[in-house]
Fold:
Amino acid sequence: MLQSLRLPHPLESRSGLVQLRTASQSDLDALIELLSDDPVSAARGDHAAPADRPSYLAALEAITRDAANALLVVDRDSVVVGTMQLTLIPGLARRGATRLQVEAVRVAASERSHGIGSGMMRWVTDVAAPAVGARVVQLTSDAARTDAHRFYDRLGFVSSHLGFKYFVG
Structure:
């Protein structure tokens, strides 16, 4: 499944070459920092509080154990500057199409507008999706992320659905 993807994979950026690779436990603190650096994530509770580290670690371990999931990082000179999670979703709709869900796309503030996010998403659409047999690449984006919406529009993603969430507990 997703573990069959050929990683690490070099990505070109306007500020030089970076590497897309599978995340490991040693990346956990950098991943937590990327989440907490984002205002929307911070409003949801991602504050990089030390007491939350065990929850993040448990999530990282669950993701890496599941062959239908991959947590990826982008690093420049061994410093994590981006991340995203991929999940394969088999389905009956669209004549049995498999979907590749992209979640939690983040690029460090200091690295934004250098082409890293574009490189990550082009790799998903051009390399990862065909390699795993996905016919649809999909993602959701918080309604407040208007800059992200313009970014995904520029990459050819279509705003086709309205999403709903129900929070339990």
Notes: The first helix runs from residue 28 to 36. The CA atoms of residues 22 and 72 lie 4 Å apart. The chain is about 35% helix and 25% strand.
